Amino acid sequence: MTATDAAPSGKLPTDPWGPLRARASEMLRPSLEHAGWKGTVEELARVLEPGPEGKADLAVPMFRWSKTLGKRPDDLAKAIASGITPSPEFPRVSAEGGFVNFHMDLRAFTSTTLRMVLEGKGSYGAGAAKAGSVCVEHTSANPTGPLHIGRSRNTVIGDTLVRVLRAAGWNVVSQFYVDDVGRQAAMLVWIWSKPLSEWPPQIREASHLPGDERPPGLKADHWYGRAYPPTAAYIKEHEEAARSLAELSARMESGAMPKEEYRKVPKEILDGILSSLARMHAAFDEFVWESDFLFDGSVERVAEKVRASSRYRRTDDGAEGVDATDFGLPKEAPLAYFRRADGTYLYPARDLAYHLQKFARFDRVIDVLGEDHKLHAKGVAALLEAAGEKRSAEVLTYGFINLPEGRMTTRGGRVVNLDDVLDEAHERAVQEVRKRREDLPSEEVERIAESVGSGAVRFHILRVQPEKPIVFRWEEALSFEGKSAPFVQYAHARACSILRKAGGSETSPMLVVPSPALEQIPPTLHPKEEALVRTLSQLPGLIARVSESRSVHLLALYAHEVAERFNEFYQELRVLNSEDEVRPFRLALTCAARQVLANTLAVIGVDALERM
RNA sequence: GGGCGCGUAGCAUAGCCCGGACGAUGCGCCGGCCUUCUAAGCCGGAGAACCGGGGUUCGAAUCCCCGCGCGCCCGCCA
User: Fold this and answer.
1) Where are the domains of chain A?
2) pLDDT one-digit tens code per residue, A446-471
3) How confident is the model at residue A336 (pLDDT cuts 50, 70, 90)?
4) Which nucleotides along chain B are within 7 A of a protein C-beta?
5) CA nearest to A486, candidates A444, A455, A443, A447
6) What fold, for A17-104?
């Protein structure tokens, strides 16, 4: 993003389609009422749909009213259409095949759209500020080792959601919930609190640690993470080790151990993970440590609230839970437990305390979770209700990323680490850039390659609807052509190139183009120009829709579509050496396309490059 | 066995929530375009009656039912 992308203050965000939809409803209503229809403006607004290309800009099917109004759909459409007085926005209203078709003034629409984009700049597409606040929790990986590509899907979906909600006008806080209690955390303390020389040889050997000191180039998550699977395996096989781990775990949960001590390794691993995520342009506003809920008494407090609920159940031996069958738990196992018979609290108890804290601060709570956590989420929902919280968390789940050989397993060693993917993507991108740009200094090559590589990875994961599983294949993940981030970035770079030559400087593109007045718009638009304008006009509606439906994958597909429309436009039509009558318009269109590409890329967390 | 999700050209995906006017896109395949704004691109072509079967409807990829296939889950783990 460049400095000029900042929005001028005081300008209200806008959607070119807003006024048009409103106008069409107003025009339609009297004519429909004349035919005997009774209904609301809201109903009309819902029925208005974009028509097929060339046939209508907004269309209204008459089939649904045909019976009640006692006319054949096509006759009804004709009657309605002829009863509508054309307006400046819609100079023509026609009927065909049972649809009433509104035809807008394309030149005026083009002018409006370009002005909104060019004046809105970085805020084109953004929605008006919302009153409420939203907390988005995502990633929340256990800090036991490096992040694998599967978990990074959580980050991509979550971080994009954060971005799109912000664009839509919400006040958003992103949170990473860090697990620093329980068995997994204890295991790290157990092994790393002794010097390597005192480790069981089995673990030492299987960990493949090069020496006693962490090599300077090796990230903490990889260094500490190497010992984790062997340690877990060892503890499974050795009873005395399991016993000492249990003791350690109990000591940690009792509060006897200072948190600096048990958080030391997780913290370092977390930092390693975060530096990987930073390469993907994902960052967090807040970190919430699970152990805090244990020691500040909040788990006890929320447990008391739950006990007062009619859902509360206690088993014969003293374990505690709530009945959650109406939240989707199976009848055979209806209880969502929060405390063991031995009196220690379970993970859901801390998660409940965490969620209550979220609801105390935020109006909306969104959790991004792997599909393996669906049932757990239902249990927490039941606990929340039992604790007296009326609202419920919006849970967004996603399918796993599998390998062609099957599911990823850390213990089986069948994993693909995010860092390895990013490194490989970077490497390949360097080669690609070198191949076509011998003139660039090497540090710029590196910079471009990093943006291209991480963008490609992020886009590849984002473009698939979250519910669908993904099979990770290197060749597909690292493709730089077609439906990919580099394709979009390339279109942006080409736009910048044109704008540099058009009158910007050698180094920066000409981003300020006078807002196109109506008289600058050609009397008839070329189909490629029209298609591009129409696509550019869709961003505000899309951001509003995605922020509601949370279907973030649509943003990636839209980015591709804008790039495609722009590519088709500039390959078919000259911009710089075009005739004087169309040149200002085409420049403005190029400028607007660049802006929309930049804004869309920003929402999906991919760098908009000025050259590549 | 039960619950939730998914099933669209050789492969990978969008469209399904809110049924509508010709099923879209990418990879791959075939054929073109670098002496004019970077070929990570563009243009043209072949390729699917949308898992199967019923139903609702003027109209179904989209809604309902029954199958089949795949994924995830069904712990006093997290």
Assistant:
1) 17-104
2) 999 999 999 999 999 999 999 999 99
3) very high
4) 1-6, 12-15, 17-18, 20-22, 25-28, 36-43, 58-59, 71-78
5) A455
6) Gyrase A; domain 2 (3.30.1360)
